[in-house]
Each structure stands twice: as structure tokens, then as C-alpha cells.
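testing teh design pipeline on a random one, pls ignore if ur not involved
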């Protein structure tokens, strides 16, 4: 007597197989069990799934292929984990098999049952008790104490609105410590936006809890390391799991606390495959697991901010019951450190073509002379964004993309940041032969070079010449490069650090007293409605790197400062920034979003399509849209509740010779949008199968897109 077993397998992203495949087995297998099954000619990893109520199979049992083997050294994945995967798949409109398998460590897919058994035997067996080292305890600040008291007394979800340097990490540590002390088997999941922030956090957690019970999960680890961490979390040995967005899917049998640090950070949104928001899934997962969830930021996403608003019964307006999240406040920095003074430099009144305004240069020079550090950031890597011929107007366009290739001076290449196409810099203009071709605009490499010239002759207190460093995606390509560069900054070996937003986030630089944004203006007038929100948080985060050491900042004659060079000093965003007033900024933005019917007051999805020509890509989207609207049945009724905009080219319309178009779908109700998308899926598949759309390369849905 054989049993029928539903198994999720890695379904190709664009097949329309959304559910489990059926296999047979001599004995029953519990849902969540990991198995290896044949798929086509291969044997793949699969997850036994819930049996649906489909009518019993009456056909030939022998036609169904058997489960090849069972990974029986592993406990089945928990019901909460399976529900999370099922929810993520349906919410983000992907196949459950794709989401489930992507959520497992890659090495698990490759190991045979025998190899895995060997790994499991080798895994360290410790009791998992976290050794709390009382020596490391410091007294909590009154604000930390207050936030923790509210956290302990309520069920959440919580939004911790804490200034940069207010000691949010200490709150995570204490919340985790209390939990682990209370429940001997409880686990905590702590997420950070960037890999390069995990080592710092890991060090603090290990210092507090000991190395035994703390594991990390992020894409910078080797497959073997990731598997080891994953197994420790899955077995419940790891009490604390630290990781980037992928960690939201970590299998944890007793997850009782989830922390999302810098919850506003765009990198919590996966940008390929199932485009999930790890922050949003964290909130959902907490509910499934009966865990508390703490989102934290100095500049929360407007979604979370709005979701944590207080109830209001405005006269005349309909009463607002308030948001679902509870807001916790930590407005001050630890140890009397004040937030940096924000200075706006009106570039309209500076010498023409000045890259660094003279007063800013002066300020940097005197900081260096006093032994303090300055951080100068510019959100553009490379030497210059364009190479250009003044004679004929030639520009270094990418032949494959609707974008310019960036000039990288260190290796004298023109590099496309979209498709990667790289060529040696031509000796002469490819169009007219003029040998006098030059850079246009400025990236971090050129800024570093320029600062070197401007600061030549400035000496450190030890009499040595100023040292300038640079951190960006180019300088940190080699493994370990970033860690060693950051270590140099912490050790005071660099006086002026130039970089992209990589240096603006999270780092606890103790000797930085001045931070400068060279050219943040472009974001003020972007067509993306989220650009001001991103700019504001980036500026606050960057400013947050200055003056973290109260004693040092107090000794410095200039205190700590954040300089912003702009042609639009009157812009209200800067007024709020100057006052460190995120609530004022948020209120103004939310008001505009409400007027315009934008998120969080509406819900969006994008359908993207790629083809050799823009016409083919757009025609597919428009056809699928028209068919939905024209449907006489349920789909048509659902379509009537959403707004389907016409297809348009994406901002970077062509990448690697592929034309890209998108269609925005908007709705005031999240469930209504969800129902429409689920119903529309089949029609999108059908439309794609029509001969008229044969030229389409691929399409995909992005729910709650961050970039429009
Ligand atoms: P945030 O994440 O809020 O920007 P951090 O958690 O990095 O801030 O804390 C900023 C600094 O303050 C760190 O150097 C940290 O060690 C220190 N700190 C945090 N809490 C306390 C405390 N209660 N007493 C003394 N120092 C603290
Ligand atoms: Zn030319
Ligand atoms: Zn390109």
C-alpha cells in the first residue's frame, strides 16, 4: 500500500505550476519533511507539503514516481515556517516551490542524503544555553529602560523610533536576554539590512551571549557556513540568529522575538525572483509564531510610521482608530552626545564649478589638523559618470543599454553599471578622432583625487600629511577588503573618508565629527515618489555617523556637524533635516501621499515585461490588461476595483539589449489588489502563450514595489 505525497519542488520561475507535485512513498511522510525526488531526469530536493482536499487518486499508482530518499536526520520544517512560505508565495505571486526551495540553504540542495547525515554528525552538539556575561552589562539609559518596559508590557508589533546613537542595539540585546532567560528554548531573530553591518552586530551579540548560541545568515558566507548556521537554527541550538533579509525564512522551531534593525532600508526588499519585503514578512511571521516583533529606525519607512500613528478623533473628519503598531520613543543620544548641527551650503553663492565649497574645505582641514575624522559622501561610484568629446558631443553611451558607461580611471575603463559591459578607454573620440576627450561629472574616485589636491599641505596632529581613503563597491570588491578598510577608519589611519551610501549606514565611527553630502540634489526632483523619503533617511543616517563620541564632540570647537551642499537650500526637506525633525518631514510627506492617493494610502503592484522591442513588451502588458478589464466574469469584476495604468518604458528602458516595460496596478484595498493579482495570473500566462506575444522574453509581478 503506497501513500500519495504532495512535494514542493523548485519549479521554474515562469512555469504556471504553483502547487505541489505528487509522489508516492511506502510510508506516510509528515508535512515539512525534506526529501529527494525525481524531477524530469534530475533528482532534486523537495519539501513534503500539506495534503489538499483533492479527490483521492484513482489512476494507476505505478505512473506516479516514488520519493527517492528522505533526509531523516532533520526534523520536519515547522507548520509556521510552511505557512510563512505559503503566504509569501501567494502574496508575492510566485510558485510555493520556488519560495520554499530558495528559502533553504543552497548546499542542502546539493548534498546527498548520505553526505548530509555525515554533516549532521559533525555539527557541534552544545546545549545552546547562552552564557550571559554580566561583566559586559552597562546601565541602561532612562530612555532604553522606558522602551523596554513598554516592550515587555505589551504585545506589539512595535516600532522603535530611536535617534541615531540612542542605543537601539542595547535594547535588542536586553530584549533578547530577557526572552532567553525566561524561556529555556526560545530563539531570537535579529535582522540588519547589509552584510557589512553583520560582523559589528555579531561581535556585540557574541560579547553578550557567548559564541555558542549565536549564528549569522547572509549571502557573504560560504555555502558550508550557511548550512552550518541554518542547521544550528533549525535544530534550536542557535538561540540567536543574525542575518540579512534572507534570514526571515530561517527555520527556527521556537522563534519568540524578531528584530528588524533600520527597518526603513530598501535592501529589505528582494529585487529578483520572489520580490518579498523581509520587513513585512517579519511582521507576518511574528504573528504566525506568536513572537514579538520590533521594527527600529531613526527614520522609519512612511508605511511603518503611518501604521504606528496614534488614534485620533479629529473634529469633522472621520475618527481614526490609529495604527496597529505601537511606537516606542528614544529621542536622545547616549551619554549627552548631541545630534550634529546641520549646515546648508547654498551652492548658488559659491565660486562657479566649486566641488567642495571653500567654507566646507576649511572645516575639513581644521578637523584633520585637530585629529578628528571627516566623512564625505557622494552617491556615485567610479571616476566620472560620463566621458565626453567637447568637439562633436560624443558621450560614452553603452551600446547595450539606455545608459552611459562610467569612466573608471584606476584601470582606465568605461564600465556599464547596468550590464557590466567594459572596454578600455579609447585614446581618441570614437566619433571624430579628437584626442581631447574628458570626464563629465564626478564620482567617488574623482572626488577622492580632487580632495587629495585640495587638502595637500594639511597635516595631522602628528605632523604626517592627511590620509584620504575611499569606500565604495569598487574599493571593496575583493573578499575582506571592506572589513580591513573599515578597520583602518576605526583605527584612525584615515582622516578623510570618501564614499557612497555604504559608509552612511550603521557604522559606529567614534572619531568622525564632520559628515558632508557633496551633491544630494538630484533626489529632490526625482520622478520616483519615494525619492525624498530615501534622501531624508540617507541624510539622517549619514549625519548619524558624526559626533557619536560625546566627549570628543564636546572638546571639538566645531562640535559635530553635517554639511549639505545644495542649490535648493529653501527646500522644506532640508528645514526638517536641520531640525532633526523626522516627524515633521513624515507629516508633510504623508499629507502629499494622501492627496495623491499614494502608498501607504493605496497599494501597488508592478508587472514588468521584457522583450527585444519596447512595442512587444508593452503590447503584452496592454493586452493582458485589456483582457482583464473586458472579462465578463469574476476577473472583470475584480479588475473594476483596481486601476490599471497603461504600459510605459522603465526608467532605464534598455539593459543588455533587452527592452523593459512596466505596468502599474493600484488599489485602495490591499485584499482587493491581492484577489485581482491572483485571478490575473492565469490570464497573464495565457496571454504570453498567444502567438502575437511570442517575442516576449519574460514577465514578472512585483508586489509593493519600492522603485517605480
Ligand atoms: P543606534 O543603533 O541607536 O544608532 P548604538 O546601539 O550603536 O546606537 O549605540 C550607540 C553607542 O552608545 C554605542 O557605542 C553603544 O555601545 C553605546 N551605548 C548604548 N547604550 C548604552 C548605555 N546604556 N550606556 C552607555 N553606552 C551605551
Ligand atoms: Zn568627438
Ligand atoms: Zn550596458
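output:
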Amino acid at each position: 500500500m503506497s501513500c500519495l505525497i504532495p512535494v514542493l519542488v523548485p519549479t521554474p520561475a515562469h512555469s504556471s505550476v504553483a502547487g505541489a507535485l505528487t509522489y508516492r512513498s511506502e510510508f506516510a511522510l509528515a508535512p515539512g519533511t525534506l526529501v529527494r525526488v525525481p524531477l524530469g531526469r534530475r533528482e532534486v530536493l523537495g519539501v513534503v507539503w500539506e495534503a489538499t482536499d483533492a479527490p483521492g487518486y484513482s489512476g494507476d499508482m505505478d505512473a506516479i514516481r516514488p520519493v527517492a530518499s528522505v533526509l531523516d536526520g532533520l526534523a520536519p520544517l515547522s507548520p509556521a515556517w510552511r505557512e510563512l512560505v505559503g503566504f509569501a508565495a501567494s502574496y508575492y505571486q510566485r510558485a510555493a516551490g520556488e519560495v520554499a526551495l530558495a528559502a533553504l540553504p543552497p548546499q542542502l540542495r546539493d548534498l546527498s542524503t548520505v553526505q548530509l547525515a555525515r554533516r549532521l554528525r559533525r555539527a557541534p552538539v552544545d546545549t545552546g544555553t547562552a552564557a550571559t556575561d554580566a561583566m559586559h552589562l552597562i546601565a541602561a539609559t532612562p530612555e532604553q529602560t522606558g522602551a523596554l518596559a513598554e516592550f515587555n508590557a505589551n504585545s506589539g508589533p512595535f516600532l522603535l523610533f530611536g535617534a541615531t546613537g540612542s542605543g537601539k542595539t542595547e535594547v535588542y540585546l536586553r530584549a533578547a536576554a530577557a526572552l532567553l532567560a525566561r524561556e529555556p528554548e526560545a530563539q531570537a531573530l535579529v535582522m540588519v539590512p547589509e552584510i557589512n553591518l553583520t560582523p559589528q552586530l555579531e561581535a556585540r551579540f557574541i560579547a553578550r551571549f557567548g559564541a555558542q548560541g549565536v549564528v549569522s545568515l547572509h549571502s557573504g558566507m560560504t555555502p558550508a557556513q550557511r548550512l552550518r548556521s541554518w542547521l544550528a537554527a533549525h535544530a534550536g541550538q542557535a538561540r540567536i540568529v543574525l542575518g540579512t533579509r534572507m534570514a526571515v525564512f530561517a527555520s527556527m522551531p521556537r522563534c519568540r522575538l524578531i528584530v528588524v534593525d533600520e527597518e526603513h532600508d530598501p535592501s529589505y526588499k528582494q529585487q529578483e525572483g520572489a520580490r518579498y519585503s523581509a520587513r513585512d514578512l517579519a511582521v507576518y511571521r511574528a504573528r504566525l509564531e506568536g513572537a514579538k516583533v520590533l521594527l527600529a529606525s531613526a527614520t522609519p519607512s512612511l508605511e511603518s510610521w503611518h501604521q504606528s500613528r496614534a488614534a485620533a478623533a479629529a473634529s469633522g473628519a472621520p475618527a481614526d482608530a490609529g495604527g496597529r503598531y505601537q511606537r516606542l520613543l528614544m529621542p536622545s543620544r547616549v551619554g549627552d552626545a548631541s545630534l550634529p548641527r546641520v549646515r546648508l551650503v547654498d551652492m548658488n553663492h559659491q565660486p562657479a564649478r566649486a566641488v567642495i565649497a571653500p567654507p566646507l574645505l576649511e572645516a575639513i582641514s581644521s578637523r584633520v589638523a585637530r585629529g578628528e575624522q571627516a566623512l564625505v559622501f557622494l552617491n556615485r561610484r567610479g571616476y566620472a559618470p560620463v566621458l565626453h568629446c567637447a568637439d562633436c558631443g560624443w558621450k560614452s553611451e553603452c551600446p547595450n543599454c539606455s545608459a552611459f558607461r562610467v569612466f573608471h580611471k584606476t584601470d582606465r575603463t568605461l564600465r556599464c553599471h547596468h550590464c557590466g559591459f567594459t572596454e578600455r578607454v579609447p585614446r581618441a573620440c570614437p566619433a571624430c578622432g579628437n584626442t581631447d576627450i574628458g570626464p563629465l561629472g564626478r564620482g567617488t574616485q574623482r572626488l577622492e583625487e580632487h580632495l587629495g589636491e585640495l587638502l595637500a599641505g594639511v597635516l595631522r596632529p602628528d605632523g604626517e600629511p592627511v590620509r584620504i581613503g575611499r569606500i565604495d563597491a569598487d574599493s571593496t570588491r575583493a573578499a575582506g577588503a571592506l572589513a580591513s578598510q573599515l578597520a583602518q577608519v576605526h583605527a584612525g589611519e584615515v582622516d578623510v573618508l570618501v564614499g557612497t551610501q555604504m559608509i552612511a549606514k550603521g557604522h559606529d565611527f567614534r572619531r568622525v565629527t564632520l559628515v558632508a553630502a557633496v551633491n544630494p540634489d538630484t533626489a529632490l526632483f526625482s520622478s520616483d515618489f519615494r525619492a525624498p523619503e530615501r534622501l531624508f533617511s540617507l541624510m539622517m543616517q549619514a549625519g548619524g555617523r558624526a559626533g557619536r563620541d560625546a566627549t570628543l564632540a564636546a572638546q571639538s570647537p566645531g562640535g559635530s556637524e553635517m554639511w549639505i551642499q545644495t542649490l535648493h537650500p529653501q527646500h522644506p526637506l532640508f528645514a526638517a533635516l536641520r531640525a532633526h525633525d523626522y516627524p515633521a518631514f513624515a507629516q508633510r510627506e504623508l499629507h502629499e501621499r494622501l492627496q495623491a492617493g499614494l502608498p501607504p494610502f493605496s497599494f501597488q503592484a508592478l508587472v514588468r515585461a521584457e522583450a527585444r522591442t519596447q512595442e512587444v513588451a508593452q503590447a503584452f502588458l496592454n493586452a493582458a490588461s485589456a483582457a482583464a478589464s473586458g472579462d465578463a466574469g469574476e476577473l472583470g469584476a475584480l479588475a473594476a476595483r483596481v486601476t490599471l495604468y497603461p504600459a510605459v518604458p522603465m526608467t532605464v528602458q534598455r539593459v543588455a539589449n533587452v527592452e523593459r516595460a512596466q505596468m502599474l496596478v493600484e488599489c485602495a484595498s490591499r485584499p482587493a489588489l491581492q484577489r485581482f493579482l491572483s485571478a490575473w495570473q492565469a490570464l497573464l500566462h495565457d496571454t504570453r502563450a498567444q502567438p502575437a506575444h511570442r517575442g516576449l522574453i519574460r514577465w514578472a509581478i512585483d508586489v509593493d514595489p519600492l522603485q517605480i
